[in-house]
Amino acid sequence: MAAYFIHAVVSLFAVMNPLGIMPYFLAITANRTHENQRLMARNAVIAAFIILTIFLLIGNYILSLFSITIDAFRVAGGILIFGIAYDLLHAKSSSIQSPEGENVEFEDIALTPLAMPIIAGPGTITTVLALSAGPNRLSSMLDVFLAYVLVLIITFVIFYYAAEINKRLTQTQLNVITRLMGFILSIIAVQMAATGLGGLFPMLLHV
Fold first, then answer.
1. pLDDT of 42-99, one tens digit each?
2. Cα dihedral 31, 36, 41, 42 in deg (nearest 10)
3. Helices (H), 90-170
4. I want to staple 185 with a disulfide (CB 3.0 to 4.6 A). Which of 23, 85, 106, 202 is the partner?
5. 136: pLDDT confidence band, cut at 50, 70 and 90?
6. Which residues touch 96 (CB under 8 Å, ≥6 apart)?
7. Residue 205 belongs to a domain
8. Quick check: is 207 in a domain?
9. Domain that holds residue 146
């Protein structure tokens, strides 16, 4: 359980990349008071928690509804997450989880685009669904739940002190962190896709 929990924490931290999305938070809340920024950080993290929990609980039923096997989902998810990792390796924000094109003047920016797609974007949701389908489903779901709760708490702390952190970290340092997250995420993506391919084509495991 401990090993899978750590794996889930590392995976979700890499795909959420709290330090990498911090500049978006600062840009979107630039004209707000310090207190208002922190209130938005809290609301965004709570909303992201609700979104991820909904997908954790009913995501499997959604896949069943469309006759999608978990192995097919793992392959597709691995490809999607590798795309995010590729962008991060080049120190770019992922176009998949980017708020580009979103209306940041929306009445409740804590929900859109902060909670979704910045925090709980397609890559994060895909990771939650794929990891929750581990060998022991109930145990895997609990590990994933605790993992994203921990990562969301870390995200909240980073957003809460975003202005102070931003003053202390240079762009070069942020780029190094982003590339490291991308490298970790690329390994996770390949492993996820390989597991899915092994389930779809068992004969590959005996080659």
1. 999 999 999 999 999 998 888 889 888 888 888 988 898 888 788 888 866 555 555 5
2. -170
3. 122-132, 137-160, 162-168
4. 85
5. confident
6. 80, 83, 84, 87, 121, 122, 123
7. no
8. no
9. 2-198
